[in-house]
């Protein structure tokens, strides 16, 4: 089943991909972090390697994922995201973490 997932991107990725803050991607099958990132990278090749390593597919340390006011960053990459995200009612927020010293 093909599902439209609403994704909110941080400003740096918006500029890189040449898109606005909100994008929609089409996901086949289960809506997981992996399937959403696969769809984003397929639709916006400039994002390849920015949110996860292009070879290992491991999440970059400064990237975080939020949905339905919960942090999904450390959840398994193939765990289903909330039904509200899969149905398009709620967005998946991709946030660039900020570090300071």
Description:
The chain is α+β, with helices and mostly antiparallel strands. The chain has one domain: Roll (Ubiquitin-like (UB roll)), CATH 3.10.20. It has 3 helices and 5 strands; from the N terminus they run βαβαββαβ. It has a 5-stranded mixed sheet, covered by helices on one side. A hairpin with a 2-residue loop joins β3 and β4. The protein is globular and about 40 Å long. The N and C termini lie far apart (46 Å). The relative contact order is 0.24. The mean pLDDT is 93.
Strand content: 25-35%
Q: What is the assigned CATH homologous superfamily?
A: Beta-grasp domain
Rounded mean pLDDT is: 93
Q: What proportion of the residues is helical, as a percent range?
A: 10-25%
User: Taking Cα atoms only, what radius of gyration do you get, to the nearest Å?
Assistant: 13 Å
Task: Outline the secondary-structure elements.
Elements lengths: L1 E7 L2 H7 L4 E7 L4 H11 L19 E5 L2 E2 L11 H4 L5 E5 L5
Parallel strand pairs: 1-5
Antiparallel strand pairs: 1-2, 3-4, 3-5
């Amino acid at each position: 089943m093909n599902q439209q997932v609403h994704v909110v991107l941080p400003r740096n990725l918006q500029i890189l991909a040449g898109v606005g803050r909100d994008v929609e991607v089409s996901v086949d099958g289960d809506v997981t972090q992996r399937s959403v990132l696969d769809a984003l990278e397929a639709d916006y090749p400039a994002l390849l390697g920015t949110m996860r390593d292009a070879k290992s597919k491991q999440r970059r340390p400064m990237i975080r994922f939020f949905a339905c006011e919960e942090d999904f960053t450390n959840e398994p990459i193939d765990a289903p995201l909330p039904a509200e995200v899969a149905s398009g009612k709620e967005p998946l927020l991709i946030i660039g973490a900020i570090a300071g010293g």
